[in-house]
Design goal:
With about 240 residues, the protein is of the alpha+beta class. It has two domains: about 5-80, Phosphorylase Kinase, domain 1 (2-Layer Sandwich), CATH 3.30.200; about 85-220, 2-Layer Sandwich (D-amino Acid Aminotransferase, Chain A, domain 1), CATH 3.30.470. The chain has six helices and 13 strands. It has helices at about 45-65, 100-105, 135-140, 145-170, 210-215, 220-230, and strands at about 5-10, 15-20, 25-30, 30-35, 40, 70-75, 80, 85-95, 110-120, 130, 170-185, 185-190, 200. The longest helix has 24 residues, at about 145-170. It is globular. It starts with a strand and ends in a 5-residue tail after the last helix.
């Protein structure tokens, strides 16, 4: 597999072309950001930790029958993925009240949400990823009703798999976001799944083991990510 030119550099990952038009290389960098990029920092080992974490989760989801863009991990910080036509709509499931939901609705942080909530956000940094609905997505051509229905179905399938996985490690999957794209006309899970894009709390103490440690200045960010990995069985190479 030949790595070619950089196609895109996001806040924490870079995307490279390969000699296969259907495959890309994701490079997980040590960069961390919060508040739409207003706060940026480099955290040692972060790229390696998130690359390994993402590979482990994607393989678990594939075994559960959920289609993903993940092909294989290439190195400490790089993975090979399918090239998707990305849908600019993020799917968010919340199992426990935290973050933006608490701010918007004034509900108590830590309240269990039964059933879990499902929300859609437009992926647009300039607009701070505004919340949208199915009607807006359809009207503006961001996603069709059929695509949205499949994305919602897959998002809840992910929830069933990962809630159990993290529970076995003594962790609560509080909430998470997913991104999807099209590959040969099929809806496929893209981007990544790591503590950067979800909230994970200790089930007993409610200690935070996710990127809120960076957002809230709690420290020990990468150590927390590594602790999650140990609890769910991600071993070192």
């Amino acid at each position: 597999m030949e790595k070619r030119q950089e196609l895109y550099a996001g806040k924490a990952k870079s995307v490279f072309a390969t000699d296969d038009p259907d495959l890309l290389i994701l490079n997980f960098r040590d960069d961390t950001s919060a508040f739409d990029g207003e706060r940026m920092e480099s955290l040692e080992r972060k790229g390696m930790v998130n690359n390994r974490f993402n590979a482990f989760i994607m393989e678990k989801l594939q075994l559960a029958g959920i289609p993903t863009h993940f092909e294989r991990r290439l190195s400490d910080t790089e993975s090979l993925v399918k090239k998707l036509e990305m849908i600019p709509v993020e799917c968010v499931v919340r199992n426990v009240a935290a973050g933006g939901l608490v701010k918007r609705l004034g509900v108590e942080e830590g309240r269990e949400l039964t059933p879990p909530t499902f929300e859609l956000f437009l992926k647009n940094d300039a607009l701070h990823d505004p919340m949208i609905n199915e009607s807006l997505a359809d009207t503006f051509g961001w996603a069709t009703p059929a695509q949205l229905a499949e994305m919602k179905s897959l998002t809840f399938k992910v929830n069933a798999v990962l809630k159990q996985l993290f529970a076995e490690g003594g962790l609560l999957l509080v909430d998470y976001k997913l991104e999807f794209g099209l590959f040969n006309g099929e809806i496929v899970l893209g981007d990544e799944f790591s503590p950067d894009g979800c909230r994970l709390w200790d089930a007993d103490t409610r200690e935070k083991f996710d990127k809120d440690r960076f957002r809230q200045g709690l420290g020990g960010v990468i150590e927390a990510y590594e602790e999650v990995g140990r609890r769910i069985g991600i071993g070192a190479d």
